[in-house]
Amino acid sequence: MDKTGIALGQRKGAQAMFYPDQRVCIFIDGSNLYAAIRSLGFDFDYKKLLDYFHTRCRLVRAYYYTALGDEQDYSPIRPLVDWLAYNGYTVITKPIKEYVDPTTGHKRTKGNMDIEIAVGMMKMAPHYDHAVLFSGDGDFRSVVETVQDLGKRVTVVSSLMTQPPMIADELRRQADQFIELNTMKEDLLRKPPVLG
C-alpha cells in the first residue's frame, strides 16, 4: 500500500487490466462523476474517455445516467446531455422529482439513478465481459456482486483523493479492480483551445 491507502496495483497498474478482445460496457453515474471531477478540479473530456477505452478494448456501449429538471427550467446539464447523445453515448435520463420533507417542511429534490444503472448493468450483462462503473456509491455493491456471479469482471472508477473520499469502502472491496480517477486525469483532461 502507498500512503493514500491504495494498493499499488490499483493505481496506474490497474489500467492495464483491459484486453484488446474484451467486450467492455461503461456505466456512468452522472451526478456522482460530476461531484468527483469537480472535487478533483479538472475539466473532464468525454470524447477522450471514449478514445481511452477504444484503444484498450472492444467498447460495446457507454451509458450516461442523469436526472434532469423540468423542461421549463434551464438545466446546466442539458447541453452536456445533448452533446453526449450525439457523440457516442447512450444517455438515460429521468425527471427530477420535487417533494416536501415531512420533518422540516422544506421543498427537496430527488433524482437518484441507482435503479436504472443496476437494471442496465444486468440487462447488458450477456453482451459484455467487463463492466466499468464510474461511481463511488456503495449502493452498487450488490449489483456488482451479482454481475460478478454471472462471470463478468467489474472495474469501479472513483476517487479516494477527494475530501471526503467519493468511493465507498464496500464498493471498492467488491470490485475486481478500482481505478483512482485522479490517475486518469492526464488522459481525460480537456485541453484549452490553442489561440493564434
Q: Pairing-aware structural class of the strands and helices? A: alpha/beta
- Average the pLDDT over all residues and give the rounded result: 86
**Which stretches are low in confidence, meaning pLDDT under 50 for 5 or more residues running?**
1-15
CATH superfamily: 5'-nuclease
Order of helices and strands: EHHEHEEEHEHEHEH
Please outline the helices and strands.
Elements: E1 23-29, H1 30-40, H2 46-54, E2 58-68, H3 78-86, E3 90-95, E4 97-100, E5 107-110, H4 114-124, E6 130-134, H5 141-149, E7 153-158, H6 169-174, E8 177-180, H7 185-188
Parallel strand pairs: 1-2, 1-6, 2-3, 6-7, 7-8
Antiparallel strand pairs: 4-5
Describe the structure.
- With 196 residues, this protein is of the alpha/beta class.
- It has one domain: Rossmann fold (3-Layer(aba) Sandwich).
- Helices cover 30% and strands 24% of the residues.
- The chain is built from 7 helices and 8 strands.
- It has a 6-stranded parallel sheet, sandwiched between helices. Strands 4-5 form a two-stranded antiparallel ribbon.
- Helix 6 links the parallel strand 7 (153-158) and strand 8.
- The chain starts with 22 loop residues before the first strand and ends in an 8-residue tail after the last helix.
- Mean pLDDT is 86; it is low at 1-15.
Concise summary:
This protein is α/β, with parallel strands linked by helices and 196 residues long. The protein has helices at 30-40, 46-54, 78-86, 114-124, 141-149, 169-174, 185-188; strands at 23-29, 58-68, 90-95, 97-100, 107-110, 130-134, 153-158, 177-180.
